[in-house]
């Protein structure tokens, strides 16, 4: 069931239906709260809706589950940058690269 909600959410995101995608990510998170991918993509969907503060909280949840999950640090960096907090953004960006130097070579779903 997790994968069904997660895949549906990704499809909705690709179609620009971010609010609907967030609902599906929430369902996926309820079914498998330890899977950080749903948190990351939910955060990216929130950023698409300019809900950057909420996105940061969601990315932070992923970090609490897996403190080595580089995409969540990258997500926080992007959200902070959108909020004009450039210096703090760079700290998270650096952390993401420290954890996974090839991170920026990988495509992200958002």
Key phrases:
single chain, mainly alpha, 110 residues, 74% helix
Question: Would you kindly provide a brief summary of this structure?
Answer:
With 110 residues, the chain is mainly α. The chain has 6 helices and no strands.
Topology diagram in text:
Blueprint: H1 2-14, H2 18-31, H3 36-48, H4 52-65, H5 70-82, H6 86-99
Helix pairs in contact: 1-2, 2-3, 3-4, 3-5, 4-5, 5-6
Shape label: globular
Give the ordered list of helices and strands: HHHHHH
C-alpha Rg (nearest Å) = 13 Å
Q: Helices and strands: which structural class?
A: mainly alpha
Biggest pleated-sheet summary:
none
Span between termini: 22 Å
Counting DSSP E segments of at least 2 residues, the number of strands comes to 0
Residue share in β-strands: under 5%
Low-confidence stretches: none
Mean pLDDT: 94
Give your account of this protein's structure.
- With 110 residues, the protein is mainly alpha-helical.
- Helix content is 74%, strand content 0%.
- The chain contains 6 helices and no strands.
- It has helices at 2-14, 18-31, 36-48, 52-65, 70-82, 86-99.
- Helix 4 (52-65) runs antiparallel to helix 5 (70-82) and helix 5 runs antiparallel to helix 6 (86-99).
